[in-house]
TrEMBL record:
InterPro entries: AAA_dom, P-loop_NTPase, ParA/MinD_ATPase. Keywords: ATP-binding, Nucleotide-binding. This is AAA family ATPase. Gene3D superfamilies: Ntrc-like two-domain protein (3.40.50.10850), P-loop containing nucleotide triphosphate hydrolases (3.40.50.300). Residues 126-279 form the AAA domain. It comes from the Bacteria.
Length: 350
């Protein structure tokens, strides 16, 4: 099978060099890359029949004649922030000055399986767990915001909340809980929970297990259902990411979920109590793998004392990312996903 052809055309050579480097790093020799900065050569190149997986061209180079070529995904690199379909439905417009990671994702997401040489539906699933040593750190808002942000970047997301009191529905349009039929499906067969409740999964940008509005004890369920559910979802390979929101605590079943995850975001704040709690869990749980366990400081304020940064923790477990405190209350998943800190967080995974 021939390598897929990717053509990127723009007159800004510095811009092209940065984008070319990103494609080479991500794809290596799995694709043939044609970078064009000369308008005359561009015209000459497309004067002959071309078969390409991706063609991205500066809006000043674009002509309707490109639609007569055999191009799977055709993009206009726009100087203005007007993302989406053009009047010609087969052509998409993307803002050329997005960050390189985001631009690469926008240009390649439809072609991901072919570019990676994988069969349809066979992509690996990454489990991201969010965990905090203390309640009130905004862990759930980060979890929901990250799920929505990754979904907007064309990733297939499943969000699983494992808290005793599940209030994440606050950020969703549908605020109803898991139905009685859903609970019965969970009890049916502990070994196949995901398959049994698959039809009860909802989607609002990202997919999610409906909130449990009563405790597990009240439903005669054990915490183990979450581990079985997550494993089943991963085995299905229907998702790029499973985001697991884990309640604060040190019980063995919570630790098992942390061990199951590929990445764990340890959510803290800068105040003295949060720092004290973080010191305690760092002493009692093994978070030495700095590739897996990443400290995220939420509700950061640069004008206030930062107890975490002034403690010994910063040397041993440095803060990977700061999420600035929002100036106004945020009430929807879309608003959370628009936070710059959450956008930056999402770039760690794409």
């Amino acid at each position: 099978m021939s390598k897929p052809l990717i053509v990127i055309a723009d007159m800004d050579t510095a811009y092209l060099a940065e984008l070319e480097n990103k494609f080479l790093v991500e794809l290596g020799d799995r694709a043939e890359l044609e970078i064009i900065s000369d308008p005359e050569y561009f015209e000459q190149f497309f004067s002959n029949p071309v078969t390409a997986e991706i063609v991205a061209v500066n809006e000043n180079l674009y002509t309707n004649a490109l639609q007569r070529q055999d191009i799977q995904n055709l993009f206009i690199l726009s100087e203005h922030q007007e993302q989406g379909r053009t009047e010609e439905l087969s052509v998409s417009r993307v803002y050329k000055y997005y960050g390189i990671k985001e631009l690469y994702n926008e240009l390649t997401y439809k072609s991901q399986e072919r570019l990676e040489g994988k069969e349809s539906g066979k992509r690996e699933t990454t489990i991201i767990a969010l965990y905090s040593a203390i309640g009130g750190t905004g862990k759930t808002s980060l979890s929901v915001g990250l799920a929505e942000c990754l979904a907007k970047k064309h990733k297939r997301i499943l969000y699983v909340n494992t808290e005793a009191i599940q209030a994440f529905f606050f950020y969703l349009r549908d605020k109803s809980g898991m139905s009685n039929e859903g609970y019965r499906a969970i009890k049916e067969d502990a070994g196949h929970i995901y398959q049994n409740i698959r039809s009860f999964i909802r989607k609002e940008g990202f997919s999610y297990i409906p909130p449990f509005l009563s405790t597990l004890d009240a439903r005669n369920l054990s915490y183990d259902i979450y581990l079985n559910l997550i494993r089943g979802a991963r085995e299905s390979k229907e998702y790029d990411f499973i985001i697991v929101d884990i309640e604060a605590g040190y019980e063995a079943n919570r630790v098992q979920l942390l061990q199951e995850a590929d990445k764990v975001l340890l959510i803290t704040m800068q105040d003295a109590i949060s720092t004290c709690k973080m010191e305690y869990i760092m002493q009692n749980l093994d978070f030495r793998d700095h590739e897996k366990y990443l400290v995220i400081m939420n509700r950061y304020r640069g004008d206030e004392m930062n107890c975490y940064m002034q403690s010994e923790l910063q040397a041993q477990f440095p803060v990977k990312e700061k999420i600035y405190e929002a100036e106004t209350p945020l009430g929807t998943a879309e608003q959370l996903a628009a936070l710059e800190g959450i956008k930056k967080l999402s770039y760690m995974f794409i």
